[in-house]
């Protein structure tokens, strides 16, 4: 059985279970387009955290993951995968975005296993019990064919299950 489940619909619809919304980010402090823009409207405090993280880390963030509270919903944590230095048309190559996606997912996985991370985020359950959800990351503004990212997600078969929303 695959570790990826596909669902049709808007990933931002409200849920009644603990979940982590995973998305790809630039390191430039901009949630200006795509899913990130929608999140900036719904989760302005999270966007503020994200901007501060970018101001501090810049491109050193590449290949890392920042978990931040959504503040608006108790059962939602946001995972920012830093996969490109810049957003928009200045984004990295497909190959580098996929490489950094894998590194950032590895980083996310180790943070999920650390009980201290959940505590600092005010998690409502152990983070490993949160449902891992994402849109088809990298396949919009970042222009990476979905199959390239999907191939990497499948590598986590014994470690993480993902629910992927497609519009
Ligand atoms: N629900 C489900 N899927 C969505 C939604 C939604 N509400 N909004 C967008 N999508 C889909 C898009 O159709 C696309 O397939 O999410 C996928 C990823 O799109 P982008 O948001 O363009 O993200 P990505 O390609 O990963 O590029 C990341 O764009 O999101 C900004 O700031 C972010 O610089 C970063 C870049």
The helix/strand order is EEHHEEHHEHE
The CATH homologous superfamily: Leucine Aminopeptidase, subunit E, domain 1
- Into which percentage range does the β-strand content fall? 15-25%
Q: Percent of residues in helical segments?
A: 25-40%
Descriptive tags:
167 residues, alpha/beta, Leucine Aminopeptidase, subunit E, domain 1, 6-stranded mixed sheet, binds adenosine-5-diphosphoribose
Give a short summary of the structure.
Belongs to the POA1 family. The protein is of the alpha/beta class and about 170 residues long. The chain contains 5 helices and 6 strands.
How is the topology of this model organized?
Layout: E1 4-8, E2 19-26, H1 34-42, H2 44-57, E3 65-69, E4 76-84, H3 94-112, H4 115-121, E5 131-135, H5 146-154, E6 162-166
Parallel strand pairs: 1-6, 2-4, 2-5, 5-6
Antiparallel strand pairs: 3-4
Helix pairs in contact: 1-2, 3-5
The structure holds adenosine-5-diphosphoribose.
């Amino acid at each position: 059985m695959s570790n990826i489940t596909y669902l049709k619909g808007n990933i931002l619809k409200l849920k009644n279970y603990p979940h982590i919304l995973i998305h790809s980010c630039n390191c430039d402090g901009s949630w200006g387009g795509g899913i990130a823009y929608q999140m900036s409207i719904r989760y302005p405090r999270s966007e503020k955290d994200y901007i501060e993280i970018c101001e501090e880390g810049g491109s050193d963030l590449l290949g890392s993951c920042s978990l931040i509270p959504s503040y608006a919903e108790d059962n939602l944590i946001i995972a920012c995968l830093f996969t490109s230095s810049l957003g928009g048309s200045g984004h990295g190559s497909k190959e580098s975005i996929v490489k950094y996606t894998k590194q950032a997912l590895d980083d996310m996985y180790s943070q999920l296993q650390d009980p201290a991370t959940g505590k600092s985020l005010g998690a409502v359950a152990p983070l490993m019990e949160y449902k891992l959800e994402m849109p088809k990351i990298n396949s919009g503004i970042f222009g990476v064919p979905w199959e390239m990212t999907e191939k990497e997600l499948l590598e986590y078969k014994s470690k993480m299950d993902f629910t992927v929303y497609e519009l």
